[in-house]
Amino acid sequence: MALRDDALVKAAPVFTLLPEWVRERNPEMVGTIGRVELFPGATNVVPGRCRFVVEVRSQRAQDMVHLRETLRSYAAARAGWQVETIFEKDATPCAEQFVQAVMDAAAAEGLSCLRMPSGAGHDAQSLAAAGVPTGMIFVPCRRGVSHNPDEWIEPVQAAQGCQVLLRTLLNQAGIA
Known about the structure:
By secondary structure, this protein is α+β, with helices and mostly antiparallel strands. The protein contains five helices and two strands, in the order H-E-E-H-H-H-H. It has two domains: 7-76, Alpha-Beta Plaits, CATH 3.30.70.360; 96-172, DNA polymerase, domain 1, CATH 1.10.150.900.
């Protein structure tokens, strides 16, 4: 073992440091390492190279910049490490008129609602970037699990979400 130079072992500390860096910066921020590639990638060969993708999301651009620079500093102190920015995008706020309209529609349906940021981009980002005012309606998932094969909502919750959407659209159209 003393003769091995294992790239995965060298990279492993980042896998546990990332959540610490994120929590220290902003508890509402998220960070994920969702893909790790080892080269040459054979079962019985010590990895000579490790490539992994770090994704961070925050409502504040300065949080993401800070994490990128933290990772760059960490990498700069290690021989052979490189950090490449693949994609960078600021958070996209929803149009306040639609956020309020959705909240009003939920209240009119007798439903509780919670104003919350979305950690995922959804199509709303693309629409907002094209100048289309957007808003989103989220239906609570069982055990809070979403974007996962275990995501589940009850049919009645789906119907309630549809009612909120319908009421929001009718109100925005001036029909209701």
